[in-house]
Amino acid sequence: xxxxxxxxxxxxxxxxxYNGANGKKIAVxxxxxxxxxxxxxxxxxxxxxxxxxxxxxxEHIASSIFNLLGVRAQETLLGTYQVGAKRKVVCACKDFxxxxxRFFDFCSIKNTILDxxxxxxGTELQDILEALEKQQYVDPAMLTEHFWNMFxxxxxxxxxxxxxxxxxxxxxxxxxxxxxxPVFDCGSCLLPQADEKVMKEVLxxxxxxxxxxxxxxxxxxxxNGRKINYYDFLTGMEYEGCKKxxxxxxxxxxxxxxxAFLGGVPYISELQKEFYGRxxxxxxxxxxxxALKMSGNDSC
Length: 300
Hints:
GO terms for molecular function: kinase activity. The chain has 300 residues and is α+β, with helices and mostly antiparallel strands. 40% of the residues lie in helices and 16% in strands. The chain contains 10 helices and 11 strands. The protein has helices spanning 55-68, 106-110, 125-134, 140-157, 196-204, 206-215, 230-236, 240-252, 255-263, 270-294, and strands spanning 5-6, 11-12, 25-30, 33-38, 76-83, 86-94, 102-105, 168-171, 178-180, 222-223, 226-227. The strands form 3 sheets. A 6-stranded mixed β-sheet has the order 1-5-6-4-3-2, covered by helices on one side. The chain has a 3-stranded antiparallel β-sheet with strand order 7-8-9. Helix 5 (196-204) packs across helix 6. The chain starts with a strand and ends in a 6-residue tail after the last helix.
């Protein structure tokens, strides 16, 4: 069982503020490091009976699984924070700019491609791939490989909100060097609005599970103006870079390790642990494994 942490008494770090619509955020110091605390968004006006969504839990679990699969992601911790009479479960995200690196999201980098008709926020796949190739911050081949690895893990975890503003680069003003930032902002993975009723339904009804594999969630990235359906896209296998990513991610996926990790996550119920494990395993079996066969290599 992971350590239970109370962040309430941590020193707040002045001069830091974070944007984004997915819950409130503050900066604190914990164990000598700077962390962004993400608070759970309200469940009001969302299709859930929960007072607050599970996006903080999704953030921690998804980020940890990215790291388990060898795709570098932010370091996260789950803990609690007292707000008035309420004790909330929060996700602490270690600040990867604390050493002076500056972060640039892909949206801003995409805007530097002057001979493109697409603006930075545009998520049409072909425009993204063109920008990956034309940007001059990091090696294009390495960046394209990272993009496809991130896309395939997002497919495994059911991420519906990987847009151009929540991944990107770190830049060192002293050396003039740039590198890919750790994957972050994974709170839209793992059906964060699923309440106990939905979880029980998905665990007991194969049709309910299949709907959340073959129909939704879809990617935020579009192809020909429509959001990509992960199953259709990955089993269609149009791109060599995507095929390579599927092979690597499938080969690196150890469901026993993922299950063991889920068993130690604090603040979540046994129902949640079983739900997350079943959901990930089903997406692995029904999306990634068929995609592997379509890539021309099913030996993993």
